[in-house]
Predict the structure.
Amino acid sequence: MQHVVVAAIGAIVNLDHPAHIIEWHFIKLTVSNVIVIGLMFVAFFAAILLPFPGSGARREARRGGDKS
Amino acid sequence: MSVSPPRPKSWTVRVREAGVEALPPEKLLPDGQPTYVASWIYVFGVASIAALVVIIGSGTILALKGPAWWHYTGIGHFFNSIHMWAVELFFFAMVVHLWGKYWMAAWRGGRTRVWITGAVTFLVAVPTALTGYVSQQNFDAQWISTQAKDAMNSVGVGAFFNLTNFGQMYSYHVLIMPLAVVGLVGAHVLLVRRHGVVPPLPFHAARAGADVPAAVREGPSTPTGPSNGVA
Amino acid sequence: MKLLSLLRSHDDTKPWAGRYAPYDLVKELCIAVGVVALLAIVFAVVFSSPDEKPSTIAQWSRQMPVDFVNTAVKELDGTSGTAEYGPPYNHSSGSVQHFLFLHPQRWLGVSHPINTAQDYVLDPLKTIPDNPALSGAVAQYEAAPENTQKGWTEAYAKPLEEYVTAEEEKKPLPSTVSVSPATGVVNVASVGAGPVPTMMAGLLSLAKSGGVDGALLTSSQFFQTDYTKPLLFMADGGLLDARAEQQHLLGEQWGMMNETGSYPGQVWLWLYTLWYQVEPFKSSANADLLVMLMMGLLSTLFICIPFIPGIRSLPRRIPIHRLIWREHYRSTPGA
């Protein structure tokens, strides 16, 4: 009983139900796995596209300015 | 002026001098990076290490309390959840890091061993996770161990690596595999420190090496690094 | 010589001789640990983690008594999955895989011997005290010649097999097998089964009480951490499979990548499980070995990317690097 209570209060979003499956030709993936894979691509492209802070310091360094 | 005879070198001195020569303190912990290190893709390496730290931290709590604890207490289940999500984050960060390093051709400039240690780390992390999954002592562990045993047996490994032997798998998961992963990550990071972050590919990389001027390839030739002189 | 020159990289990368900007690595690591720890804690609070309770032989025998008895009689007569498996459990060959001249499963031998008749049926039955009828049945079975034993088990197993097959194919169930609602005993209408019905009834009763779980775990010593015997026994039956199918964990469901419930699983196993879904692996009796060899080859190639012509030069041809290092190129004259 204690275990059931622990499990019930342990999650705000309950994922303890059979997964929904995305099927495409012979490929079968759970929704959560598709989300994880999708987020990997999002993270990769965001990482290479978003500007990285510190451009001012790098510009100074290229000009031969002081590094602090 | 008299020249003092060379002192016989003890093993300790030899190891120390070799270490300091390979990785002087300014190289081991530089306070600057080349100006081309200017992309968020670079954080996925340290994010992988950070995830490994959280895995080991949460795993240590789970190990301190024993393998049954997390099934019967809310706080134990919470630490198991942290451990599970940290593993997901670890593989997530490693994969994005790997993609970035591939498209940067980060093995260039004598960094082959950096690539190799990184690739082997990923490949060792997979069975590390497997030993964890079969140590859960729940239905998932029952299923994974009885299924994956066929793959292990088919290559003969099942004769000495028994997925259905909880005691053995727990020992591998808590001690042997983490030592392997940490050792590989340590070697990987030290090699990065030794060789530096890989310089950019030439802009016209597809035809580089043939007719692209040297000045275009690598930037100014005057060393203007920080006081550590990292190259 | 030509091969060596092909493998040798035309690497023109020179050590960086340009400028450095301040970069605090220790602060970056601390921030990264803080961010990742926070993310893991947030996910743990929001989603928690799965913990499906394990199956036991007691549950199996109570929920699926016919399946249990069907499996038990196969363990007794040596026709179960484990009995016919081969190394590392025994010298059979039902699940022994090979590829060309490679027979690693045979080469490494029997390192975890399991005699299914003794371990799963006869030894647990011998732990039941004060039951002369059962002890007599076991003694009668053990004293009989092998072909007599085989005749008895086959007579008992045939109606059970027909029942289980009809159940799987969703056909009308034969009346030769029934479960008494009052006692839970599995009645099998069989002729010439000798002492086997008495033995199976005794084993079913022991299993329902949890006695078989205990007997299989502590058979060699009090302290035990090796669950191979009870796990293989359960895996020979249908309970684990039934639960796995519900949770989308079967091989044909790409289950290797999945976690119980709707949690994310092991997405990094995508390529490993993909091979099992395509020919020639899908229908091969040596699928596991073939897939392991394929993944071993691909892993080796992955490690050796710096040496593989074509693969190592792809980053030059598909210039994703121009996005990564765009600030550098903009500030470099002539780029």
User: Anything to note?
Assistant: Chain A is about 55% helix and 10% strand. The longest helix of chain A spans residues 31-49. Residues 1-9 of chain A have pLDDT under 50 and may be disordered.
